Amino acid sequence: MKGFNIALVGATGAVGQQMLKTLEERDFPIKELTLLSSERSAGTKVIFKDNEYTVQKAEPDSFNGVDIALFSAGGSVSKLLAPEAAKRGAIVVDNTSAFRMDPEVPLVVPEVNEQDLFNQKGIIANPNCSTIQMVVTLEPIRKKYGLSKVIVSTYQAVSGAGAAAIDELHTQTQAILNGDDFTPSVLPVKGDEKHYQIAFNAIPQIDKFEDNGFTFEEMKMINETKKIMHMPNLSVAATCVRLPVVTGHSESVYIEVEDENVTVQDIRNLLEEAPGITLQDKPEEQLYPMPAHSVGLNDVFVGRIRQDLDNKKGFHLWIVSDNLLKGAAWNSVQIAETLTKLGIVK
Amino acid sequence: MKGFNIALVGATGAVGQQMLKTLEERDFPIKELTLLSSERSAGTKVIFKDNEYTVQKAEPDSFNGVDIALFSAGGSVSKLLAPEAAKRGAIVVDNTSAFRMDPEVPLVVPEVNEQDLFNQKGIIANPNCSTIQMVVTLEPIRKKYGLSKVIVSTYQAVSGAGAAAIDELHTQTQAILNGDDFTPSVLPVKGDEKHYQIAFNAIPQIDKFEDNGFTFEEMKMINETKKIMHMPNLSVAATCVRLPVVTGHSESVYIEVEDENVTVQDIRNLLEEAPGITLQDKPEEQLYPMPAHSVGLNDVFVGRIRQDLDNKKGFHLWIVSDNLLKGAAWNSVQIAETLTKLGIVK
């Protein structure tokens, strides 16, 4: 079996570590593995398949001879180095938002639009975590019953905001249980002006605000969903909320289909057979998805499927997935696998 | 100033204690206060305005001479004793779900439908906590711009499930931080078969499931909203989710108004002047409502008001309130105040 030369930029970060774990679990055929990072983390030792690797500082020439370069080191690193990697013949799978809305860059969730990979010009974007789990669920429904409207309210875990946010949740929670004082300094957005308590709270801000009153995270869900599903006119709205959950994003999603004669059982049957989805929908047994039960699993979990009581084309769903896996590391590695499966990387 | 004879059933519970605090803070004109409970809690000593009261076992004759009886001791106690209290001339304000959908019983949020109090026949129902904060916000919008559709996803605190649920959240959170084992035994629903982790999790079940796949909590929001707002044909859908938050319910609400020419600023101006509401909506200053900032306050907090990007009649709102106050104790005491204001209790 042929192996590929793989580079990973951001090898020491939370998602980078998950990518390594996923490459290992999937037994991805690697000939040579190059682990890269910013100057700050260069020199760190990392174990992969029982071998020790030293993380090197990412530079343009780091990508010479690389087949696939996985990027997860922040948007500014991607903007600088992804074109350099592509120029040197690597195909970049970028987990940041840097290129997602670039019309030249395919934005790919393999279960939904793997064919878009054929349009790649050296850079492929991995969508936002909260978008991925939603489109995996919506695509089979759109295909069979049509789709005209989506309204989503999210329940998002702090690990989406990185290791510092996880630390803040843990430290702050302990402080509150002890009755101690604390000063929020990371959430909701590290680079924004004000920081708020996340422990035992819910913060309706993820990423910064746009002029239209939506946050950038909400606009990502809206715009990325339309792009991935090739539905520029789909009506999509999002409200994104950060919760005191470490890992696992949940979504309360209302959709309207075009077919007038769809039942809850039809949608259950459809999603039961759909790729990448585990149906957990037996209210009579209190079976429904929850973030705590999604951690460490690659699938998207769907349940609480109900027909709207006023609109027979309306349905409500509850969608949960591990935001570090299908929302990031697993979807990126899955894109890499699909590139080899489709013969785009040989 | 005339004083009233007040009885409080469930004086030792979480909401009962809040009711006493609220009666004290509002300086409600009380001539005689009778504190009642189940047999189990009878004998407990309670301080009210520097006087010690002994809680007595609630019996039919406990209500002789009582003007207003506040009930918050569970549905079965209300079903048994509220009619007995009414028979003896008391007006009952019942905080349980026992009589809410009874066509003979007004379901009242004073900011919305205080006139319904004139139709009382001895029992008045206090709505479900998550319903109250939503209708306080929707009523001024309906009145000025019309209202045709409501889709709500809730983010609900554990205190709505009682003191045992608060204990479970705290104990379980500490166990997880310590890396210890734990066995859930209260949430999502004490009387249901399975119990799940609430700490660092989100549970999409509040109350038991109905045959249509909605939970009883969701159906309460749907049916109570229509009844309180006198809109039997309003389209309402709800998804109710329990969070690791102690106090303060949040709601992501999508509405459609009838007027075609409403702006976000119109709705802000309207809600700024509306009774019982504090507007917190300055995204440019990261000002929006959060449960941690609502605790101990009577108002309903509204922010994140956005016009839908695809439907100019569609708006998104984020509504937060202390579920033990406006959601329970304060709304009940406010009904009592309104009964005296309107001269229904003299």
What does this structure look like?
The structure is a homodimer of 346-residue chains. Chain A is an alpha/beta fold. Chain A has helices at 14-25, 75-87, 110-113, 129-145, 163-178, 216-228, 264-273, 325-341, and strands at residues 4-9, 30-37, 45-48, 51-54, 56-57, 68-71, 91-94, 123-125, 149-155, 235-239, 249-256, 277-279, 300-307, 314-321. Chain A folds into two domains: 4-126 and 328-341, Rossmann fold; 131-323, Dihydrodipicolinate Reductase, domain 2. The first copy, chain A, contains eight helices and 14 strands. In chain A, strands 5-2-1-6-7-8 form a six-stranded parallel sheet, with helices on both faces. Chains A and B meet through strand 9, helix 5, strand 10, strand 11 and strand 13 of A and strand 9, helix 5, strand 10, strand 11 and strand 13 of B.
Helical proportion of chain A, percent range: 25-40%
- By CATH, the superfamily of the largest domain in chain A comes out as Dihydrodipicolinate Reductase, domain 2
Report the C-alpha radius of gyration of chain A, rounded.
Answer: 20 Å
Beta-strand content bin of chain A: 15-25%
Task: Give start-end ranges of low-pLDDT stretches of chain A.
Answer: none
Q: Identify the biggest protein-protein contact and residues per side.
A: A-B, 60 and 60 residues
Query: Can you give the mean pLDDT of chain A?
Result: 97
Tally of distinct domains of chain A: 2
| CATH top level label of the largest domain in chain A | Alpha Beta
Distance between the termini of chain A: 11 Å
Number of H/I helices of chain A: 8
CATH architecture annotation of the largest domain in chain A = 2-Layer Sandwich
